[in-house]
Fold this protein.
Amino acid sequence: MRAAKFISVATVLTMATVTGCSDDGGERATASASAPSGLESFYKQKPSWKDCGDGFECATVQVPLDYTKPSGGKVGISVVRLPAEDESDRIGSLLTNPGGPGGSGTDFVRQAARTFGNDLRRRFDIVGFDPRGVAKSDPVRCNTGPQLDDFFATDASPDDQKETNALGAEGKEFAQNCKAKAPTELPHVGTLNAARDMDVLRAALGDPKLTYYGASYGTYLGATYAEQFPKNVRALVLDGAVDPRLSSTEMLIEQAKGFETALRAFAADCIKAGFCRFGDSVDAVLASVSSFLTKTDKTPLKSTRDPRKVTESLAVMGIARALYVKEYWPVLRQALTQATQNSDGTMLLALADEMVERKPNGAYSNQTDANMAINCVDKPNPPDLNTYGKSAAEAEKAAPRFGPFVVWGGLPCVYWPVQTEQQPKPITARGAAPIVVIGTIRDPATPYKWSQSLADQLTSGVLLTFDGDGHTAYLQGNHCITEAADKYLLTATPPKDGTTCR
């Protein structure tokens, strides 16, 4: 899987009462009163909302490119909101982030705002934003469509030094393209700055404290916000958590193991459904998938709709995409049947393209470029190709079908023109109000133990568990999870720590 990423929830979905002040002026004065020195003009700005169709309003909020030089360059943060249905009983704004990194928060809200509960839509503006460098917020764009086609198709399970060198060349080209095309933005697109932007947004929206829903990478963004601005937290739901203590390669190895767990669950479901074409036991199904991937490594599949060869890397990416959502498992059975019986990779390629937001015309969104740019500056990276290869080998032992693909996907970071000295460390957000962390036991992309870990690290962390499958739990239709999260967002009263929903 050639992207060091967590898929955004926007992509997955493509398939005691607190009363807010209804006087915008008074609320805004409270929200901006504590603006950090030198940032007053950013905190006091009033978004110019314009109708942008289907009941939504859009605006742009300005933030500093470099917070150490607030009088220098600026970044325009694209924001969209679905206004609260009952202005007289409005609490404030529910800011959201769907993950990625690189997922468009404005697209997410346009797709998902009306799937939030009735009480939330009645009392909150549902707000989405594109973090700096993403989508409509001064996007980082490094690679052309053909360059990304080559990047994703390159063999990410190298069998010899020649194939390893080919991976290195692709990773280096990716990094060099970003250095050439986005030199000003790259040092400033990390999560620390995106979290600072969120506090500017909070003030510009007129909220004294932040109410937030973040999924996948959005949990890391939300936790980072709470660490920097603990007193500004009202209620944060962090769904499918990232563990901030892990190094970049540790995260990728653990993510690969998560996909292995999800594949085992898929195999068990295939057998339970009856007439599973890939084996009569979980281990037999896994062996069948391994055999298929080994064969595809030597002889790529063809697609009836696309001239591209469906390489092993693209096949693994297609499988991974389907594991994100349990409702996609029947599609995965069809795709694997098509591929194994007819050497036809059409469905797997379509799934892979959906994963990385490749359009039918060969163009990509900026999700992949932004994802890499943010990940590469958030944490230190291995110093060279050989060191990185050792992590990939470790991943292959721990997760034989996904390990190499997930870990090698982050290789461009080795060559990244901007490296950070910031070390991974626990996030405690000491002094923050209760923060709810939701973990899904068989989550493929953000393993459950990450949610357990983050809830433990946060001084006010509360763990809410979904005993289920798929990536993230909220907005996926489980009544128990929805009821607990909605009550907390509305009242700021969390569920009992350790609550489990099934």
Summary: The CA atoms of residues 302 and 309 lie 5 Å apart. The chain is about 45% helix and 15% strand.
